[in-house]
Amino acid sequence: MDSTDTPQDTEAERATSPDGDDPYRWLEDVTGDGPLEWAREHNTGTLAAYAETPRFAEIRDEIREVLDAETRIPYVVRRGDYLYNFWQDAANPRGLWRRTSLEQYRNDKPDWDVILDVDALAEAEGQNWVWHGATFLAPEYDRCLISLSVGGSDADVTREFDPATREFLPDGFTLPEAKSSTGWVDRDTLYVGTDFGPGSLTDSGYPRVVKRWRRGTPLDDAVTVFEGEQADVSVHAWRDQLSGLDFLTRSVDFYHRKRYLLVDDVPVPLDVPDDAEISVHAGYLTVELRTQWEAHPAGALLAIEFDRFRSGDRDFEVLFAPDERSALVSYHWTEHALLVSSLVDVQPRLEVLRPGPSGWTRSPSAPVPEWCSVRVLSTDRYHGDEYLLAVDGYLTAPELHRLVAGVDEPAEVLKRSPARFDPTGMSVNQYFATSGDGTRIPYFVVSPESSGARPTLLNGYGGFEIPLLPGYDGGLGRAWLARGGTYAVANIRGGGEYGPRWHQAALKENRHRAYEDFAAVAADLVTRGITTPERLGVSGGSNGGLLTGNMFTRYPELFGAIVIQVPLLDMRRYHQLLAGASWMAEYGDPDDPAQWEFIRTFSPYHQLAAGRLYPPLLVTTSTRDDRVHPGHARKFVARVEELGYPVDYYENIEGGHGGASNNEQRAFMRALSFAFLWERLGLWEKLA
Fold first, then answer.
1. In the beta sheet, which residues pair with residue 373?
2. Could you tell me if residue 487 is inside a domain?
């Protein structure tokens, strides 16, 4: 069926149409006795099929060894004089939050100062805590807000912490479990958005109201600063600590935000496009464009002195301008410099820019090895121009480099990770497939040196302007590549590999292009002799789960096995489930009949039909996922079973949207996916 055609009504379509009844709505009751019993029964069957074999245990243990390895790089962020790290291993499954000095970090075995033991805290408080991070008060960094989640959900508890005494402050700021947002104003004041009671949250479940909360006063007495609309995604406020200026953001949808400068408690609109991203630092305003603005193209990065901007000047300097092959990825401030990351045909680049009296100067950072990524891991906007770069590739084990902007010295290699699998005889290549409308779609292939069609795992995402970049995955290397498998990554439209135009080409009514791109890559893998349909497996999670769900329903003949993880699948009700309303700018509004006509064409739950030859299927999700509702996965599996097709299902009770909350669970869930793929591709005996 052509992706732009409107499908004919089927029994399944009528049962789940806007004016019909969904027979599996009962599975949306996340913690209801019936749905949980349904999940447990399916878990039992899936465990018996895949997890109770020596081969599964072997893969699980190999992945767990990678995750828990003492020799992996303890990635850090600098805050003042200290480098902070969060560490999980077999002895500390919930994790240790710790810090050290740069001098100590240079050692093979640094002397770590443990600030918070999350395992000990969970035991002492009788709570299933999962670490969600810490937000410091700059520039002193002597106070922070720690976020802890119950079981890994997006909602978390916020508590003020003193890193010097290693204690939660008894009179400190504390917020109960919610999808809160906070911003330090000063030592005794916060901007806070949280669940203040009825009407205080948006339809997406995020804060609609921002208040100013002073230390020592009840949260109920916090003063309202700003209110958004019920249909907004969220609102939040923050202070730029260098200038003392306060800013407000009202996220109208996922890509449009109205920004305000708070002057004497009055929100003054900022004259920037609603769909742009902005930052303010060191007296400069930067604007990243998603669409053309005046003479500036979509995807450009602009800068201007903020005082000039406030006075009406709009003479921006262009810091980055894309072409047909390039795209801006990110930018990060040090105290005096701006680090600009970009892509050229999905190969990363990094430049160091510095403002001065005569304008901005630029110089390249350290060269990037072929088919590798460089990611700015840490900067401290208030203390110097040091920056830390994470460098890795599909076959290149990770390294951590230290550089200083403006200092012409080679990068200092702070840490190297040993290889987790033997890459001898393996290669990385980039190819281009031609999609249905003639667009060239890049994709990477990591494969053994030997020729011939091999079992291949294809991964993709294609949404929310997120690019898939080269990176090292020791678990994948051991479980798949070292066993003779080939790995491929499709850089399809909907992602950010070529900037906003690449993303916007697959929005809403054009969503089919992402799926056509992915199908084109799958077909190209076969045409090149890299694999065959029977030996081609595919996996994806979240929006990538929607992608693989569409591969299952639209292109089943292209694949030998499919894995769908923490997915969106019921696109008729996605906007009514948990955070789903926040994604309507990506997919469309199912309540609008005109939009439902195109949404239904990429709603896998509604595209299932009898009489099709579907490939073997594994669907996984998490009960604690409060971002993408587990009902998507449950209902899809129930409908597949109703139609008489075999399907394997596993629901992790913990884990949140990531599907797992500790290394044991991560190793188990990944091993389950790999075991399914090897088994269903029929290649265990030959390659396991």
1. 392
2. yes
Q: How far apart are CA 426 and CA 637, in angstroms?
A: 37
Sign of CA dihedral 107, 110, 111, 112: positive
Which domain, by its residues, includes 358?
282-418
Q: Is 459 found in the same domain as 321? A: no
Nearest Cα to Cα of residue 210 among 241, 189, 187: 189
Cα separation of 85 and 254, whole Å?
31
Looking at residue 657, its pLDDT comes to 63
pLDDT digits over 512-530, tens only? 999 999 999 999 999 999 9
Task: Look up residue 230 and give its two tokens.
Answer: 């019920």
CA 405 – CA 490 distance, rounded (Å): 34
425/401 same-domain check: no
Rounded CA-CA distance 341/319 in Å is 11
CB atoms within 10 A of CB 6: 10
- This prediction has a pTM of 0.90
**DSSP structure class, residue 207:** B
- The CATH number that applies at residue 395 is 2.130.10.120
- Do 363 and 459 reside in the same domain of the chain? no
- Domain total for the chain? 2
CA distance 172 to 149: 18
Residue 675 DSSP code: H
Q: Annotated catalytic, 427?
A: no
Q: What angle do CA 43, 49, 51 make, to 5 degrees?
A: 75
Question: What's the CA gap between 215 and 217, in Å, rounded?
Answer: 6
Residue 135 located in a structural domain: no
Between 14 and 546, name the one with better pLDDT. Answer: 546
Question: How far apart, in whole angstroms, are the C-alpha atoms of residue 487 and residue 204?
Answer: 36
Residue of 23 and 657 predicted with greater confidence: 23
Token match 């084990």: residue?
A: 397
- Identify the band that residue 656 occupies on the pLDDT scale cut at 50, 70 and 90: low
- Catalytic member of 149, 542, 622, 673: 542
Tell whether 193 is covered by a domain. no
Nearest residue to 559 (alpha-carbon basis) of 524, 543, 535: 535
Residues contacting 158, CB < 8 A, separation 6+: 145, 146, 147, 173, 174, 175, 180, 182
Going by the DSSP 8-state scheme, the letter that residue 57 receives in this structure is H
Q: How far apart are CA 173 and CA 298, in angstroms?
A: 41
Q: Clarify whether 358 is annotated catalytic.
A: no
What is the 8-class DSSP label of residue 580?
A: G
Q: 3, 503, 657, 661: which is the annotated catalytic residue?
A: 657
Q: Are both 429 and 414 inside the same structural domain? A: no
What token pair was written down for 643? 């139609």
Section 204-223 average pLDDT: 96
Non-local (6+) Cβ contacts of 514 within 8 A are 462, 463, 492, 493, 494, 506, 547
The verdict on residue 386 lying in a domain is: yes
What distance in Å separates the CA atoms of residue 446 and residue 232, rounded to the nearest whole number?
A: 42
